[in-house]
Amino acid sequence: MAEDKIIILASYHNSAEANIARGVLEQHEILCFLSNENYSELNPFFNILTGGIKLHVFEKDKEIAEMILSLPPIKDENNSEV
Q1: 15-27 and 62-70 helices cross at what angle (nearest 10)?
Q2: What is the DSSP letter of 75?
Q3: Phi, psi of 8 (to 5 degrees)
Q4: Residue-wise pLDDT tens digits, 56-65
Q5: Distance between alpha carbon 25 and the CA centroid of its chain, in Å?
Q6: What is the mean pLDDT of residues 3-24?
Q7: Which of 8, 13, 45, 53 is the most buried (most CB within 10 A)?
Q8: Rounded distance between C-alpha atoms, residue 11 and residue 64, angstroms
């Protein structure tokens, strides 16, 4: 079995956005991970040098991951995001 290539799907400038995206993908059983998160939290200027916190996925999951992240948030009956 050939190894699956890991790609950078997106970059974020703060860990909150990056972790929300990671959590959404994990809820849909898309394997993913973040890189540069700790450096970016310790030194925000590191984001400028590296392009931010990177969200990685397997290349085979790229299209479905992009589709999932492009969907608008789901709202409950009180119009609150869930």
Answers
A1: 110
A2: B
A3: -90, 120
A4: 999 999 999 9
A5: 7
A6: 93
A7: 53
A8: 17
* Residues 38-53: tens digit of each pLDDT: 877 777 777 777 789 9
The identity of residue 61, as a single letter, is: D
Q: Determine what percent of the chain falls in helix, strand and coil, rounding each to the nearest 5.
A: 45, 25, 35
Predicted confidence at residue 62, as pLDDT, reads: 97
Answer yes or no: is pLDDT of 73 > 90. Answer: no
CA of 26: how far to CAs of 23, 42, 55, in Å? 5, 25, 12
Average pLDDT, the chain: 87
Mention every residue, 6+ apart, whose C-beta is less than 8 A from residue 26.
32
User: Which phi and psi (to 5°) does residue 24 adopt?
Assistant: -65, -45
Place of tokens 């925000």: 44
Instruction: For residue 12, give every residue at least 6 positions away whose Cβ sits within 8 Å of its Cβ, in sequence order, or none.
Output: 18, 21, 52, 53, 55
**Tokens standing for 68?**
């999932």
